[in-house]
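call fold(seq) -> tokens
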Amino acid sequence: MNSAPLPPLDLRIATAMTSRVLSAPASRVWPRLRRDHAGLAGFGLVGLFGLIALGAALGLAGQDWSIASGGRWEPASTMHWFGTNVLGQDIFQRSIHSVRLAFEIGLIVALASTAIGTLTGALAGWHADSWADDAVVFVTGVLDSIPFYLFVAAVAFALKGNPWSMHIAMVATFWTTTSRLIRAEVMRLKQRDFVQAALAMGMPVSLVLSRHVVPNTIHILLAQAAIVFVAAIKSEVILSFLGLGVQNGVSWGLMLAESTQEVLAGQFNNLLAASIPLFLLLFGFNLMVDALQNALDPRQELG
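ret:
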């Protein structure tokens, strides 16, 4: 019985080397994470908030955030766990719904920024010192030179209240760091033997990048995506607080903006219900990112 022909030897060697490069660090990730108790605590916090966000997305909680179900500034009770705001809306429901919004914005911005940064960085790194590389470096330099919040304000004004204006402004800013990191890593990886072997066998550049080069940057992409996730959440809170973010909804930023007037009247429930979950989520993400960077860093192999 005839068997399928084997690929050329050099190509099999290149594929095997790629698999070895990927699997060797991956096999050590979990033992490193397991020893990092602070990192595990961070994963636990992020996982807890992720479950809350999923519950809100599925309609299990936080759906009555806009309903005035109580009186003005009611104290915490069994009916309203965090009390009510000046309009009689349940503060707990608003805080739960804000978790969903935070994860939604963080996820969209992180995925879009990582995709754009990976594509442009791989293109620039592979074609270093070419017009493509010069164009990517020029664009990233220009975008990084623009103050972030001025850029967001300009985008929001140009799009005239478009609900995606904040997302677009964040993505247009956050992809640049990912692009620079991937560019540098691709410039290093394209000199490796397993990449040169694949090229010598006539494999198309697009296939070499997608099969052998970009997969070996996963340790950078995971850590950078988590960093962008955190940056997007913080930026949304600041922008919403300034009136440039969420318009037709609720977020921790809007709750903090409302609390500026309520604190003067001695009402702190809105402030605490927004600031404490925000602090815990960002604290958990920072612990998680530190743990990921330590676990995925190839330099740890030298220790």
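Residues 115 and 157 are 26 Å apart (CA to CA).
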